[in-house]
Design a protein that fits this description.
Layout: E1 4-9, H1 16-25, E2 31-36, H2 48-65, E3 71-76, H3 81-88, E4 92-97, H4 100-117, E5 120-125, H5 135-143, H6 157-168, H7 173-179
Parallel strand pairs: 1-2, 1-4, 2-3, 4-5
Helix pairs in contact: 6-7
Amino acid sequence: MPHLAIYTGSFDPITLGHLDVLDRSRSLFDEVILAIGINPNKPPLFSVEERKAHAGTLVSRLLREKPQGAKVRVEAYQGLTIDFARQVGAAAIVRGIRNVTDLAMECQLAITNRQVAGVETVFIVTGESFAYVSSSLIKQIAAFGGDLARLNSLVPPEVIAALEAKRRDPRNPLGRLATEAPAD
């Protein structure tokens, strides 16, 4: 029976750290689903459709550049991760770990998922060059006018371009922040 894993997250936006974890998970499983979830505690910058499109483009490139390893597909889901894992028949949930703070939180979720649904979690420690990268940090840099070009070692060029477009759009929260006058 093939071993299927789901690599879950909000991927808002997807980073090179996410792609690093995804790539390394491909040597452990027969197939990996990059599963884009909705976190009600985090207001999204990119819509689910935008995140799915970004991930799809980047996964296609990864598979062309590194054809060895598991196949990968991108899906979005709503609701509990464990319900999605059961729905697709996942043997494991892949989670990237950057530091001990991540580990503490992820261990609690992993134990709960194993006890409640019998699904194991596999932790992959991110590459050292991505240990301090988070989607939240990328969004903060973009929101407060940081030089997005300097993020090229942390975020794919397609994501930088999408962040720039969001920042130019006055209807988007990034665009509104960029056009507001600084506080006195």
